[in-house]
Design brief:
By secondary structure, the chain is an alpha/beta fold. Helix content is 42%, strand content 14%. The longest helix is centred in the last third of the chain and has 17 residues.
């Protein structure tokens, strides 16, 4: 089997989106599947990861030639809102555009059941839920005491540290993060990650004014680190993972933090119906509820450890080995034609 594994916008699109693509390629490498990162029709399967014009062009051509097309549904209009300047205005026309793009595929991969339900309102293209998974190797050694000391010292943090890992955007619950930090001055809050959607040089243009004001007016116990070169630094320094995001297709940073045994405090949204409040997470909806949950975990070492251990156990089904088996199985079915009802192969 030869796969054209194309990511339109590669090198520009960052964060969990890009890491998901890297995870897929790690699976292909591990299983010895021949693939190219270029869009080509010299393949048995075209796997697309971003709904851009070039991807749509190749999807159309591939299906005309009887080559099955698989599209990853990383993008939704709701997930696009409250991200950067003009994102809300662009979200409205984005839905019909994505509907058109996903309709060019033979099959879709949805990273969560919630995402699958949303995408069902876009297109009737058949779909399968396969998690983006997480690469445990990226976090090997996160519990090194020297690494913890380095990152605590670098950002002048005092444990227990409440932390977040990801792009600093409103959709991720930035306002909630700042307000909870303001109400809990006795604890340090640290947001590790880019201060804008691209991590590049367009900070002032791409970051909405409201986002900049929230960061600039955050309390003294609230630290925004910007990009960190070693992703292990976040769980090394952090003790309670605060994930108040309002909309997620899955949330890879959440899986990574849980893998490191960090008890997550998450917003109660449909995406996280697979998490059990009080067992492998704490769920909340209001600022007051977030304050209570974080306070309890910061003050109770045993409870923090209990939920953290349970969270780490939960992530075992999201490892690259586990999700890789599902992805390769879907590849085989599409190429053989058993799951491909739209573009007959062979």
């Amino acid at each position: 089997m030869r796969v054209s594994h194309y990511f339109e916008g590669e090198g520009v699109v960052t964060g969990g989106f890009a890491q998901s693509v890297n995870n897929q390629r790690a699976v292909l490498d591990d299983r010895g599947i021949d693939y190219t990162t270029e869009p080509t029709l010299d393949c048995d399967l075209l796997h697309l990861n971003n709904a851009g014009p070039r991807s749509i062009y190749y999807a159309k051509r591939a299906r005309r030639r009887g080559i099955p097309v698989l599209f990853h549904t990383h993008n939704t209009a709701a997930d696009f809102r409250n991200s950067f300047v003009f994102s809300n205005a662009l979200a409205r026309p984005l839905k019909p555009f994505l509907a058109y793009a996903y309709d060019q595929a033979d099959h879709l991969v949805c990273p969560s059941e919630h995402n699958q339900e949303v995408i069902a309102g876009y297109t009737d293209t058949p779909s399968t839920v396969i998690s983006n998974g997480f690469d445990a190797e990226r976090f090997a050694g996160w519990d090194d005491p020297d690494l913890r000391a380095e990152y605590l010292d670098r950002y002048d943090l005092e444990p227990p540290v409440v932390f977040m890992f990801g792009h600093v955007i409103k959709r991720k619950g930035l306002d909630t993060f700042v307000e909870v930090a303001r109400r809990l001055p006795e604890y340090d809050f640290a947001w590790f990650g880019y201060l804008n959607p691209t991590g590049g040089t367009l900070d002032r243009f791409l970051q909405p004014r409201e986002t900049r004001k929230l960061v600039e007016n955050s309390p003294d116990n609230c630290t925004f680190t910007g990009y960190i070169e070693d992703p292990r630094g976040a769980p090394a320094a952090g003790d309670v993972f605060f994930w108040p995001s309002r909309n997620e297709n899955e949330g890879m940073a959440l899986l990574e933090a849980m893998h490191c045994g960090k008890p997550p405090v998450v917003r109660s949204i449909p995406t996280y119906e697979w998490l059990e409040d009080g067992e492998d997470c704490r769920k909340a909806e209001t600022v007051g509820e977030f304050v209570d949950a974080i306070t309890e975990l910061c003050e109770d070492d045993a409870e923090r450890e209990r939920i953290g251990d349970s969270a780490a156990e939960t992530t075992e089904r999201f490892t690259l080995d586990a999700v890789g088996d599902e992805l390769v199985r879907l590849y085989d079915e599409l190429v053989s034609g058993t799951t491909n009802e739209r573009t007959p192969t062979g």
